[in-house]
Amino acid sequence: MKYNALWSLLGFLSYRLHSSDFLPLPKLEAVESKRTSGLVFGATSVENELFFAHAGLRVLDDPLSGPMTEDSILWICSQTKMIASIAAFQLIEAGKLSLDTDVTEILPELANPVIVGQTPTGQAEFRTSKSVITIRHLLNHSSGLDYGPEINRVCKDFLPTPYTTYHAKQNPIQHFLDQRKGMFPTQPLKAEPGTDFGYGYGPDVVGFIVERITGQNLEDYFKEHIFLPLGITAASFYLTPDLKERAVSMSYREPDGTVVPLDDQIPLTIQDPTKAGIAVNPILTSASVETFFQPTLHPLAAETLNDYLKMKGQQWSTALCLTTVDMPGRRRKGSAWWWGWAGSYHVIDPETGVALVFGSQLIPSPDPEAAEIWKATEEAFYGGLI
Length: 386
Known about the structure:
It is a single chain. With about 375 residues, this protein is an alpha+beta fold. It has 13 helices and 15 strands. It is globular. α1 (about 5-10) runs antiparallel to α13 and α3 crosses α8 (about 200-215).
């Protein structure tokens, strides 16, 4: 593989290629000029790590915090949605769920949802849903449990209220759902389940279902059945003291474009710890994993997804967004990908046989500078493949 063009473009402080040795490289201009905060980028095949690079400090403007490294901890936000899908398929394989299970069999709190619309005068109106929500609908974001009419503002300027609220210990699921329900008598849906794409709370509900069926909280379930079998020891819902020492601090882009340390400009999800390698042990069957790379949305729902992303040729599987056409100079047809609100991205490209990950911690989201560097990094990586 040829990496000179990649190194030249990225100018990362250091890289690793099939080795733990690090070599100095020119500083990344975008980081040095503070057009963006620290960044990491990694690529792997099934057999080997192909490339790892990082730039910038763990804490913006704090040299004593040290550089971002391969051991830095990032908040990956919506990239955890795929992990919820993995948990769901483990229960499906165990015979405790099916893709067509009515979710109210496990979560009666979701019974009798209402379809929300508008009157000719712009007033909200609703009617009882004619269909039930199934596990399939939760996994492919067609349940109707979207982030609501303010989704563009929610994704950019702040997190939805259920994500930033301290939930009652006695019945946190009901409290979470009540926060989303708002003024409506039951859970409001964007559309009849299964009829349209609506990005939102489906994977959260999958997590609630996993907890109800297993009797474990999601932290413990993920660690026991997903993370530890894969040799992952630094993944958690909670920012424990050990993880906090390695955590990359959040940065914020002011309206004038200046990047500064986050200082309560946007409320974040509670990460209180007091509430709280290489895959050699398979955690899913091949049949389940294959569904992560198979389209599930009908044409109308797929069109809504593409409108939401402002892209073409995208679909949704049971876990991730799918690219259904080759992206010139980038990922190939059939690649699965997604991103996290705090500025992290990943791609799994079966045709090429590689997976890529990119990390920043910069909001509001999506940050255009970080997104452009991610695109350029992906293009440079693919340009170096021979």
